[in-house]
Amino acid sequence: MPEIPNPAHHDVILGEDTDARIVRVTVSLIAQREGHSALGHVVGLYAKVELNADDRDAPVTYFLSRLERETKWVIDAKFGSDGYPHYAHGFGERTSAIRTIAKPVARVLDDLALALGLAEAIRESVPLVLAAYWPTPRYP
Q1: What's the predicted TM-score (pTM) here?
Q2: Cβ atoms of residues 61 and 78 within 8 Å
């Protein structure tokens, strides 16, 4: 899948009170995707996101998925700012304990999915309903 030529940047606040910090969220890919997992045929949304805080030289990269009828964005893979693979599974794998992305980041992805016409319904605690299938990635 090609990446977005002009990635979407959003600043979000992660944490609370004295632990709160502003993080730059860069979405370079968001698309409908289908594939095969241990669960069989899976369909949903796929995203590549970079998170970068002011105190880091390079971003942390996440590959995320949200399958039809799911209510959260799940981390399929996470790569540290040095490229180290902290966690790596294929698209839509749900055979081990799932890890989810922070709610402010999920809201950015939900908003993009709606704005790009990739989803008919998607919000926190709202199951994903895909829009008519798009065979190619949509760009913010």
Answers
A1: 0.87
A2: yes
Given strand 85-88, what is the order of strands in its sheet?
8-14, 21-37, 40-53, 60-67, 74-79, 85-88
Report whether 93 contacts 37 (CB < 8 A). Answer: yes
Give the SS3 label for residue 86: strand
Q: pLDDT tens digits, residue range 6-39? A: 777 899 988 888 888 899 999 999 999 998 888 7
Of 81, 77, 76, the closest CA to residue 60 belongs to 81
Query: Which 3 state secondary structure label does DSSP give 109?
Result: helix
| pLDDT, tens only, 78-121 | 999 999 999 899 998 988 889 999 999 999 999 999 988 899 99
